[in-house]
Specification:
The chain has 353 residues and is α/β, with parallel strands linked by helices. Helix 1 links the parallel strand 2 and strand 3. It is elongated. The protein starts with a strand and ends with a helix.
């Protein structure tokens, strides 16, 4: 798969494709159904599949910190799209220039002039263009009007699970409530975070709890608090552990961080890329009065996490998540996650908003 950054990097070999447009945040099973549609048409027309995404996402451009948290960074999104059989990802910078294009100008410059789209798969509620008049009907009319340079347009199919529509919004809600098992069903895989380990203050070593610190982007967080996690190393080994996701209010931080402690691990992780699978929410972020109080809470968090991993959740097996290939075998349902919540954590959540 190839990532094309900006219209100016399109070449002749990128023209002529089956395309779809959207955020594809999380690349969940609803998105995967759309990609299935694209692959079906691409096979019939003997053309590649191209996904058009935006960076930043449009709601981030307009709403800033008030935009919904991302489920996946661009790097992770691209990886998942590639695994779903996409041939090209066209990543367009969402800026004032792109925002100001009318719907017809977007069709002219991006779909026809840029990609030479032959078939387009979009939702019937899809809207685009600065005038917001770009919709499914306009796409169909413009595709037919252009004759040999035109394109067909197809509705996306709604994907539901247990009579509930799968969406990025729903996945965010499940993650925030600690229902990782149901979120995994909607995603089609366990939810994961990742990044490269960097040097930090090394305060954890002073209390016998060394942590691997993975910086997070300055964006709203889908998860925030302390979690029981499984961490996968580059060599494939996996370790149970506990992680803090957020701003470390007691010690202070100038950016959000994923700070993970691996149980029964001894080694150097600096510079290595880790994958972290949250399995149970233990509590919210709390600002403690002093370092000693934080130290005692960290010990309590470790004990809770160890108890969690020592007593796997049978509901995970019922959901098909107990396969050895999935590190989420102990993922709790929401009602079970609540049992790990401390009163201090709940009040901290209310304060955090």
């Amino acid at each position: 798969m190839e990532v094309i950054r900006g219209l100016h990097n399109l070449r002749d070999e990128h023209r002529g494709c089956v395309a779809t447009i959207g955020n594809f945040d999380g690349v969940h099973r609803g998105h995967q159904a759309i990609l299935d549609q694209c692959r079906e048409q691409a096979s019939k027309l003997r053309l590649p599949v191209t996904v058009v995404v935006f960076e930043p996402q449009p709601r981030e451009f307009f709403a800033g910190d008030q935009a919904p948290p991302r489920l996946t960074r661009l790097r992770e999104k691209v990886r998942l799209l590639g695994e779903s059989g996409v041939d090209y990802v066209l990543c367009l910078p969402f800026n004032e220039r792109l925002r100001s294009l009318t719907a017809v100008e977007f069709i002219d410059r991006v779909l026809v002039g840029g990609l030479g789209v032959r078939h387009l798969v979009v939702g019937d509620d899809f809207r685009f263009g600065c005038d917001r008049c770009g919709d499914f009907t306009l796409l169909a009319e413009e595709g037919e009007r252009r004759g040999r340079e035109g394109f067909g347009v197809e509705h996306t199919r709604t994907f539901s699970l247990d009579d509930e529509r799968v969406s990025s919004t729903r996945v965010r809600t499940l993650l925030a409530s600690g229902n990782f098992a149901q979120a995994a069903r909607m995603l089609g895989r366990p939810y994961r975070l990742g990044g490269r380990v960097v040097a930090d203050q090394k305060l954890g070593r002073t209390i016998g709890v060394p942590t691997a610190n993975l910086p997070l982007p300055h964006l709203p967080l889908a998860l925030r608090g302390v979690y029981a996690v499984v961490t996968e190393l580059p060599d494939g080994r996996r370790f149970d552990g506990v992680a803090n996701i957020g701003w470390r209010p007691t010690m202070g931080s100038d950016r959000p961080v994923l700070e993970v402690h691996l149980f029964d691990f001894d080694g150097d992780l600096y510079g290595k890329r880790l994958v972290v699978f949250p399995c149970a929410r233990l509590r919210g972020e709390v600002k403690f009065d002093n370092f000693e109080a934080l130290k005692q809470q960290i010990k309590a968090d470790q004990a809770r996490a160890r108890r969690f991993f020592a007593d796997p959740c049978p509901a995970a097996r019922e959901l098909g998540l107990a396969d050895d290939s999935l590190p989420l075998a102990s993922a709790p349902l929401a009602r079970e996650a609540v049992n790990f919540e401390s009163s201090a954590g709940r009040s901290a959540d209310q304060d955090d908003g």
